[in-house]
Amino acid sequence: RHGLRLDAAQRDWHLSTPVPYDPPLTYSGWSQSRALGERIADLLPDSDAEHPYQILIHSSPYTRCIETSVGIASGLISSRRHPHSKKATLRVDEFLGEWLNPVYYEHITPPPPSHMMLAAAKATLLRNETIDEYIPSVTAARSSSSRLWTRSASTSTTTGSGTIAPLVRSRSITATADLPPSTESILRPDGDHYIAPVPQYAISVTGPIPKGYFTHARERCVDVDMAWNSSREPLDWGDGGQYGESWASMQRRFRRGLAKLVQYYSEEAIQPTVVILVTHGAGCNALIGALTGQPVLVDVGMGSLTLAERK
């Protein structure tokens, strides 16, 4: 299931957006997703350089699931357990979308048809942002009078030939070459491992993901299959349902899509394959029920993992 969503942490968030039905993750949810990717890497048997795992992530088209998917991919590549792991392939599927229960949308606008959600998801995956870092500019020298600091009348503080400037916001950072020494390590490649940017300033875990972090992880950890559309022929895995669908209809939607997905990879896979499905709470119930062959009604925790192995 996706990580912690912003509208659950900020109850009035829906009042400030034109898409209240599609909240993003919080920074805590982003961290959850990365930790989940590392956990998946820990659970996988060891692979070798000649036969690395093929990692395929199938996501609901909702933003919180797209961001969770990229976070999982970054966690997988960050793990030192599988040093030969390459980029994951990300595919967006309509059938993995949220249960369109009218009760969910009593006070907000309901989502558009699933094909429009798919288009919006692909637009999200094309979004480019740069990382803004707050970098202190400090140069200090002891003065000849043996006083550590000598305050001047200007806005900066001077000591002899040294100057201590106030904390300033740097230019946007887009590449390692642009980084000052104090922050270069947070983006520096480490062999096959991904090193994620880390805030160098105070940040709320219930706030949004810092600007640029999603783009940074997507570019380095994910190959997005933009041509993928499983709702159309020849795949025909199904769409995201109709607004007002019943619990039983939602269950059938997920069961049908899962059955076709398993059949597809049974025929296509030519190397060790790991398929990760990222969806919503109701969808997790449907998928667990389909995998176990039993009715399931549980509160699936955000950022949680259910693991199944094909016999």
From TrEMBL:
Signal peptide (residue range): none
SUPFAM superfamilies, sorted: Phosphoglycerate mutase-like
InterPro entries reported for this sequence: His_Pase_superF_clade-1 (IPR013078), His_PPase_superfam (IPR029033), Phosphatase_SH3-domain (IPR051710)
Domain of life the protein comes from: Eukaryota
Protein name as it appears in the record: Phosphoglycerate mutase-like protein
Organism, as annotated: Piedraia hortae CBS 480.64
Species lineage: Eukaryota, Fungi, Dikarya, Ascomycota, Pezizomycotina
